[in-house]
Amino acid sequence: MASFVSRALAVSLLALPTALAGSPKSCLNPQLSCHNTTAVSDTCCFNAPGGQLLQTQFWDTSPSTGYSNSWTIHGLWPDRCDGTYDSNCDPSRAYTNITAILESYGKTDLLAYMNSYWVDNTGDNESFWEHEFSKHGTCISTFEPSCYTDYTPQEEVPDFFQKTVDLFKTLDTYTTLANAGIVPSSSATYTSAQIQAAFKKSFGYEVTIQCSSGALDEVWYSFNVKGSVQTGTFVPMSPVGSTSNCPSTGIKYLPKSGSPAPTTSSGASSTSTSSASPTTTSGASPTTSSPTSTPTGGSGTFSGSGYLNAYTNGSQVGCLISSGTWYTSGTCATYTAKASDSGFTLKSSKGSCGISNSLFTCGSGVTPTVFTASNGYLQYSGSSAFYAAAVPSGSTQQKVYTTSESVEISFQWQSV
Fold first, then answer.
1. Which among 130, 132, 155, 405 is annotated as catalytic?
2. What single DSSP character describes residue 395?
3. Active-site residue 35, yes or no?
4. Is 92 exposed, middle or buried (0-12, 13-18, 19+ CB in 10 A)?
5. Are 195 and 306 in contact (CB under 8 A)?
6. Handedness of CA 305, 308, 309, 313 (dihedral sign)
7. Which of 73, 156, 178, 186 could form a disulfide with 315 if both were Cys (CB 3.0 to 4.6 A apart)?
8. 131: Cβ–Cβ under 8 A, 6 or more apart, which residues?
9. CB 140, CB 52: distance < 8 Å
10. Pairing mode, if any, of strands 208-212 and 215-226?
């Protein structure tokens, strides 16, 4: 996914699915929420009092909820501009049939997406959605029925859920963290500073991070909005009033069980967005100096010179350096692949590379191993799975093994 902008983030709302629906009130020269110096009377075009909009996400591991390589949606919350908030603002719109409402507006694709990415950890998605709209959606001033021209009953419901999903698709938390070498692990720990640096690089600002029992489990992205939530411009900002509760060091980021998110025909996760929405760059690690082009695949790819980029859970996290260790903070080593028998051998500036006592290593006294490849990934004894005790962080390197360790990785060839 391409990098988030730190200035104005415009997210286009999909067109309403039925000609019977009305439309949000047109807003001319709208002001940015939380930035007015005088009272604004038209709260259909100015979010008030909840002018700080938070797109919130979960990382549930016990039980695991959603795909193993994607965060899930918590909601869209209208906080006052000081971190406080209102809730359950209109009991008459505490709807108990969210699924039926979305179906009546033809939002079957939205529903399918929500059932994969906006999921309840007890399995009761409908009640979760009802709670989010009743508690938070009814407090977004621009969703008031009076803010629509030719209002159709419950028209604000598909607008609320569509907008929340559209925002979520631009905020790929998993990739943001993975690109900084922060990936789920049963043994590795991270610092708050590392995590916030990853968000500041991609989102432009720090976010609110939440932990449970020392493990990262929630992220809140803060925005001000110029205009209505339905049609306005979302502008990233630093959180106001809300504070992170994670410790400064020793933060766990536990792995989920289950399967990864399906990919689109382009190979991107289905959490990816259209080209109109800025996202993080898929397959690029900001901590290495290696290029990010994707090899064409097949054993023939391994010839000449190239890098060995490390992938875990579908995201690139660093690469191999010349000794054969996995690193996320240095320059990728240039390897030379040379055809040999039914495969190829590898060599770095340290010497030949091989597997010795299950360890991948390169050096002057190493006996070269004949490797194979599949779809551009390095294989040993017919398997592209390699392992490390943890994900490397900072100046720490990790040895790479062919026998099971805490973290499974694979290495993709990139010709240079």
1. 132
2. T
3. no
4. exposed
5. no
6. positive
7. 178
8. none
9. no
10. antiparallel
Q: Within 10 A of 112 (CB to CB), how many other CB atoms are there?
A: 10
Enter the pTM of the model.
Answer: 0.63
**Cα(412)–Cα(295) distance, rounded to whole angstroms?**
8
Task: Mark whether 132 is an active-site residue.
Answer: yes
Please tell me what DSSP assigns to residue 14: P
Residue position matching structure tokens 């050096």: 363
In order, the DSSP letters of 238-302 are: --SS----S-SS-EE-PPPPSPPPPB-TTS-BTT---TTS--PPTT--TTS----PPP--SGGG-
Write out the two tokens for 17: 């699915």
Active site residue 126: no
Three-state secondary-structure class, residue 193: helix
Q: Residue 172 in contact with residue 279, Cβ under 8 Å?
A: yes
Nearest in space to 187 (alpha carbons), one of 140, 237, 255, 90: 255
Domain ranges in the chain? 9-252, 299-415
Q: Which CATH superfamily is domain 9-252 in?
A: Ribonuclease T2-like (3.90.730.10)
- Please state which of the four CATH numbers 3.40.50, 2.40.160, 1.10.150, 2.80.10 is assigned to the domain occupying 299-415: 2.80.10
Residue 254: alpha-carbon gap to chain centroid: 15
Per-residue pLDDT of the chain (416 residues; tens, 9 = 90+): 333 333 334 433 333 334 356 789 888 889 999 998 888 889 999 999 999 999 999 999 999 999 999 999 999 999 999 999 999 999 999 999 999 999 999 999 999 999 999 999 999 999 999 999 999 999 999 999 999 999 999 999 999 999 999 999 999 999 999 999 999 999 999 999 999 999 999 999 999 999 999 999 999 999 999 999 999 999 999 999 878 999 999 999 999 998 888 764 333 355 543 323 333 333 333 332 232 333 333 333 788 888 898 988 777 888 999 999 999 876 788 999 999 878 899 999 999 999 999 999 999 999 999 999 887 889 998 889 999 999 888 778 999 999 988 889 999 988 87
Residue 231 to residues 11, 23, 149, 329: CA-CA distances in angstroms? 8, 10, 14, 41
Listing DSSP states for 61-96 in one string gives BTTB-S-TT--EEEEEEEE-TTS-B-----GGG--S
Give counts: helices (H), strands (E), the chain. 6, 22
Cα–Cα distance list, 120 to 1, 135, 216 (Å) = 26, 16, 18
In the beta sheet, which residues pair with residue 54? 77, 222
